[in-house]
């Protein structure tokens, strides 16, 4: 505590001619690595080594729960914020409901100045996230006020250590000289600082690198090469010193080039090294051995037991627009089957992701409850770890290839993509490990509604009876489930079809046909009930045929229907009219001006609404559905989702 307190006083008072956090809008914007990451890595698809620390015992001393901070409690920016009378600065991926005027934390554990460093959110990506925040701030506060906030804010950085660790390559295989590598780092860091300056930033605080060679994890490396006296790893310390020597030169150049550029460097190396060599001076008893870890000096980074994956319950997602997290962004289709434009995504992500809502979907919340990162769309798995799962869902798709043929990925195509992933998984983790992942994974489906729409809006020459058509759907669905089982899947979760005869787009259609009382379309509801009646029968057959096959069906029809009929029970004010759209019930699917109808209305308070657009629920509704899916009662599901993952 004494160490952090002295740092905060140093940063805020000593090195600026005037205090830099006294303005009423003295925001704090945070960039860097695990020294500053307050939870961003929880939201990226990365290994546990890079996911911050969103598991116990991290966070136990102050927050009493893990937050993603790599400590038992608060970090330097948390104390800086406290001393500046600011609230906790929120991670970028949690700014949905937070005020931006106090600042945002963009830091990502494992990141560096160079894109090649780790799989985290590198510094240039953090800059892009900052640029997104600037636009949000201008939209919220206006150009003049946002300019004032940005100019008076402090921009604090902790970066470079992971770049240096990345260069500690054995056998002389590293392709750059120390000087070349350092120039690359400084070049990227300069570019980011100029980017922040261009966005309006003027006041910069930089931590130089700490004594990297004296950390418990690097002392362990020394032991491995035969140095048993517990000394520091000299090569790592020398690299830190090189960085620290170049840093003030680079900042002085920027000070000359950029009018109003103001900076300070905190000598983190000196203070941290002194606390290691003289722990009692800072109130500590032990400085060479970590509190949590294994091996010599507890220097093996195993704290929390999550560093090596064990029985990971991955999540594989299949289906339609209720689950599509962005796959349709990448296929050749119409805007009718996409949601990669505003106002989609505005409430949580602050930008459109391809999700058909103002924020997250059911699989996003399920992943959160299961302590998983966001499950990536299939077309975004490059550079992502597959061990947590993949999302194959495609908006507009159905069980049948004929449903929106050529414009979406039907369920059998999604199965083929899953088969590709199983092969990639074997390549990544090996045959034995991939088999374990696939058998422990949960496979969640939302499908069938578009097949029903397709039948009912076909012309009168539709060649099948309702019974025949439902049998065709069940046949294709059975085939896909068996295909997943063949690849190793054993645990299946199915949403039955919701009350699609009662959604705004159908009520608007009814209205145009002369039914003006806002009633549901009975024909659609009847076919939905036929599908939902056939579904458990099909699953029971599979359970008998396939050894180890385990399933649950979530009664989405009941839960969604009840929320339409009794909105206040679920915290909504309006359940028949969408937040975004045009026409009766805002039931014309025009949200975002990219579809056939270009004009649309947008509600003032999305939290009042059950439906975001003419077809799809709001994030808040999805969250409630996901909570019931995760641990609901037997009247809405056979087996709870959390029981499936155990």
Automatic annotation (TrEMBL):
<dbReference type="InterPro" id="IPR001087">
    <property type="entry name" value="GDSL"/>
</dbReference>
<dbReference type="GO" id="GO:0006629">
    <property type="term" value="P:lipid metabolic process"/>
</dbReference>
<feature type="signal peptide">
    <location>
        <begin position="1"/>
        <end position="22"/>
    </location>
</feature>
<dbReference type="InterPro" id="IPR036514">
    <property type="entry name" value="SGNH_hydro_sf"/>
</dbReference>
<dbReference type="GO" id="GO:0016298">
    <property type="term" value="F:lipase activity"/>
</dbReference>
<comment type="similarity">
    <text>Belongs to the 'GDSL' lipolytic enzyme family.</text>
</comment>
<dbReference type="InterPro" id="IPR044552">
    <property type="entry name" value="GLIP1-5/GLL25"/>
</dbReference>
<dbReference type="InterPro" id="IPR035669">
    <property type="entry name" value="SGNH_plant_lipase-like"/>
</dbReference>
<keyword id="KW-0732">Signal</keyword>
<dbReference type="InterPro" id="IPR008265">
    <property type="entry name" value="Lipase_GDSL_AS"/>
</dbReference>
<dbReference type="Pfam" id="PF00657">
    <property type="entry name" value="Lipase_GDSL"/>
</dbReference>
<protein>
    <submittedName>
        <fullName>Uncharacterized protein</fullName>
    </submittedName>
</protein>
